[in-house]
Specification:
alpha/beta, UDP N-Acetylglucosamine Acyltransferase, domain 1, 2 domains, nine-stranded mixed beta sheet, seven-stranded parallel beta sheet, 1 helix, globular, Hexapep, Trimer_LpxA-like_sf
C-alpha cells in the first residue's frame, strides 16, 4: 500500500473516531438526563412536570429529601445534596426545595442539611455555592474540621438572580427579586428589590417606589 493511501486511511479513521465520540457523548447527554418521564424521578421527593437535570450531573444524593419544581432546569455538573452522605435519614420533610421555572447554572453547588429553600423563577449563574451549614471553631484546641458543624436555614425569594461564583452562607434570607453580584459572599437578611455585592455582601442599590433604583451609600467608618 502506498504512503498516500495509508495517509488517507489514517485520516478517515481519525475523522470516524472523532465523529463516533461526539455522537456517543451527545447520545449519553440525551439518555442520561433526569426528567419526570425517566425512572430516576422516583428517587426524588418530587420532580415537577417539565423539570430536567442535565447529564453529566455533579454529586446528587439525598434525593428523597429534594424537591424540584415544574420546568426547572438543572445544568451540567451541578451538585445537589441533602445530608452528609447518601442514604442518611433526614426525616420526612424536604431539606432542599427548589421552586418552579428556576435555572441552575453549570458547576453550582446546593448543599442542604436543615433547610435550603429557593423560590420560583430564581436564576443561578454558573459556579454558585449555597449552603445552610458551616464549620464551627469554638474549641481552639481541636481541628476545625472535626468540630460539630452548625446549621442555619437559607431562603432565597422568588425572582432572584445570583451571579457567577456567588456564595450564599447559612442563615441568609433574600427577599424577592434580589440581584446578587458575581463573586459576592452573602450572609444575613436582605429586603426585596435590591442589589447586593461585595465580600461581605451589602446592599449597594435598592428600588424605591416613585424614585426607581437608587444607590445605597456605604456605611461610614467610625474614627477615633
Amino acid at each position: 500500500m502506498s504512503q498516500y493511501f495509508r495517509k488517507k486511511i489514517t485520516e478517515w479513521l481519525y475523522r470516524s473516531a472523532c465523529g463516533a465520540v461526539q455522537y456517543l457523548w451527545a447520545k449519553a447527554g440525551e439518555l442520561g438526563r433526569v426528567t419526570p418521564s425517566r425512572p430516576a424521578r422516583f428517587r426524588f421527593a418530587h420532580l415537577g412536570d417539565g423539570a430536567c437535570l442535565a447529564f453529566p450531573p455533579g454529586a446528587i444524593f439525598g434525593e428523597q429529601c429534594i424537591v424540584i419544581g415544574d420546568h426547572t432546569l438543572v445544568g451540567v455538573a451541578v451538585s445537589i445534596s441533602a445530608g452528609f452522605v447518601p442514604g442518611q435519614d433526614l426525616g420526612p420533610d424536604p431539606v432542599v426545595e427548589i421552586g418552579r421555572r428556576c435555572s441552575i447554572g453549570r458547576g453550582s453547588h446546593i448543599v442542604g442539611h436543615r433547610s435550603v429553600w429557593i423560590g420560583d423563577d430564581v436564576y443561578i449563574a454558573p459556579y454558585a455555592y449555597i449552603t445552610d451549614q458551616n464549620h464551627t471553631f469554638d474549641d481552639p484546641g481541636r481541628p476545625i474540621g472535626i468540630q460539630q458543624p452548625a446549621n442555619n436555614p437559607v431562603a432565597i425569594g422568588d425572582g432572584c438572580w445570583l451571579g457567577t461564583g456567588s456564595i450564599v452562607l447559612p442563615g441568609t434570607r433574600l427577599g424577592r427579586n434580589v440581584v446578587v453580584a458575581g463573586g459576592a459572599v452573602v450572609r444575613g437578611t436582605f429586603p426585596d428589590h435590591c442589589v447586593v455585592a461585595g465580600v461581605p455582601a451589602r446592599v449597594i442599590r435598592q428600588y424605591i417606589p416613585g424614585h426607581g433604583w437608587q444607590p445605597v451609600p456605604a456605611p461610614r467608618k467610625e474614627t477615633t
